[in-house]
Amino acid sequence: MIELIVQPVGRVRPEDAIYVAREMPKHFPISIRVYPTMWSLQPPASAYEWSRMQYRAFDINEWLSRSLGPLLKGGRLALGLVGADAFVSGLNFVFGLADPELRVATVYTARLEDNDNGRFLSRLLKESIHEVGHLLGLEHCPNRACVMSFSNDVEDVDLKSPDFCDSCKLKLIRAYSDKDLVP
Ligand SMILES: [Zn+2]
Ligand SMILES: [Zn+2]
Fold first, then answer.
1. Ligand positioned closest to the Cα atom of 168
2. C-alpha 134 to ligand 1 mean position (Å)
3. Can you give the CATH number for the domain in which 134 is found?
4. How many domains does the chain have?
5. What is the pLDDT of residue 129?
6. Residue 150 included in any domain
7. Could you confirm whether 131 is annotated as catalytic?
8. How far is the CA of 130 from the centre of ligand 2 (A)?
9. Residue 87 is assigned to a structural domain of this protein
10. Is this model's pTM higher than 0.85 or not?
11. Which residue among 49, 62, 113, 131 is the active-site one?
């Protein structure tokens, strides 16, 4: 059984984390148990790049891994939903970043926001599933409808579905259907 903690960071509303935690398992072809935490964390100023007004996504992942420390024992995974904008070197911005070695991923909401809350939640869910897909070993998928396809902008996010294509599904089933991540 795969276990995942969903952690709101900064100005992400707890109900958004609860929404992601409730909806995410419906889109995975393997069983995944998702727990939203009941508290929110403040991102560290040390991970903020003042000249760009963005967070360094690598630093946020490392910080989140340290902050959740004991909760990640035994192979548990964590997804941070961060109410901010972030980048990695070489890219103007990222919607999210997964670090399979740390078993931590983050999604950044600043560029997913919309006046239509339903549209925002749909984007948040897709990018959350996408980053957890990376945590479970999936790469980007050439199928534009697949949740693992790379999104350059928010229009790409809106065009893809929250589901894995058959090929990505098969990869997950082969890798995890009979493996226990948490003993
Ligand atoms: Zn990706
Ligand atoms: Zn795919």
1. 2
2. 7
3. 3.40.390.10
4. 1
5. 98
6. yes
7. yes
8. 10
9. yes
10. yes
11. 131
* Chain segment 86-121, per-residue pLDDT in tens: 999 999 999 999 999 999 999 999 999 999 999 999
Q: DSSP 3-state assignment of 177?
A: coil
Kindly give the distance from the C-alpha atom of residue 16 to the centroid of ligand 2, in angstroms, as a whole number: 25
> Is 181 a member of any domain?
no
Residues in the chain where the model's pLDDT stays below 70: 178-183
DSSP class per residue in 110-171:
TTT--SSHHHHHHHHHHHHHHHHHHHTT----S-TTSTTS--SSHHHHHHS-SS--HHHHHH
pLDDT at position 137: 97
Q: Max Cα separation, the chain?
A: 47
Domain span at residue 9 reads: 2-176
| Nearest ligand to residue 166 Cα | 2
Instruction: Please give the structure tokens belonging to residue 37.
Output: 């935490």
* Residue 109: strand, helix, or coil: coil
Burial of 151 (0-12, 13-18, 19+ CB in 10 A): buried
Give pLDDT tens digits for 37-53. 989 999 999 999 999 99
CB contact at 8 A, 104 and 80: yes
Tell me how many degrees the CA angle 21-94-140 measures, rounded to the nearest 5.
Answer: 75
Asked whether residue 105 is assigned to any structural domain, the reply reads yes
